[in-house]
Amino acid sequence: MTTPPSPQSDPVVVALQHTEAELAEKLQEACAPDTREVSDESTAELAKLSDSLLAAARAAKDVVSLRKRRNERAATDSATAGETIREFTDHDGRAWRVWAVTPTRSRGSKRESNLGEFEHGWLAFETLDENLRKRLPHYPADWRSMSDAKLQDLLGLALEAPTRRLDARRSDPRSEPPR
């Protein structure tokens, strides 16, 4: 599995940071409080203000574009790295596995709008015996590299979820794939 680039070396993140700084500068320049009335401003000053506002609008458009690229890349990275499954043991000695779930979006589907706080995905926690499941929306992006103690903290925040129904194939030990 390839590891995603660190935020400091990711060119999209670096460009986004620079563009956000530029946007903040342009907004400050365009929106600096001035005690004079607009009717007292010269045409040259109004033209300068117009240029500043246009530069801020261009920077804002660039920030939006870069954020979309960053988010799309994160979704792609999480889809490929989303196959990561961590295992840990809680304070009671119960063994758990945890993985990220990202709902798929199908064209024209309103399913994602019905997911509420789970719309952007969640961490799924499941005991190794599959008797208990939990879900945590709004999880930290660095969950894969967290210590087991931090994963246990996240587990404590997770909401209980229904367990899977076993079908005849899964209840027959002969049909289980070798581990």
Which helices and strands appear, and what pairs or packs with what?
Elements: H1 11-31, H2 43-81, E1 85-89, E2 95-101, E3 122-127, E4 133-137, H3 148-157, E5 159-161, H4 168-171
Antiparallel strand pairs: 1-2, 2-3, 3-4, 4-5
Helix pairs in contact: 1-2
Number of helices: 4
Poorly predicted runs of 5 or more residues: 1-5
- Sheet/helix structural class: alpha+beta
The strands making up the biggest β-sheet line up spatially as 1-2-3-4-5
Tell me what portion of residues adopts beta-strand conformation.
Answer: 5-15%
Instruction: Tell me, rounded to a whole number, the average pLDDT.
Output: 78
The succession of helices and strands, N to C, reads HHEEEEHEH
Beginning-to-end CA distance, first to last residue: 20 Å
State Rg.
25 Å
Number of domains: 2
Query: What is the share of helical residues?
Result: 40-55%
**Major sheet size, sense and barrel closure:** 5 strands, antiparallel
Shape: elongated
Number of strands: 5
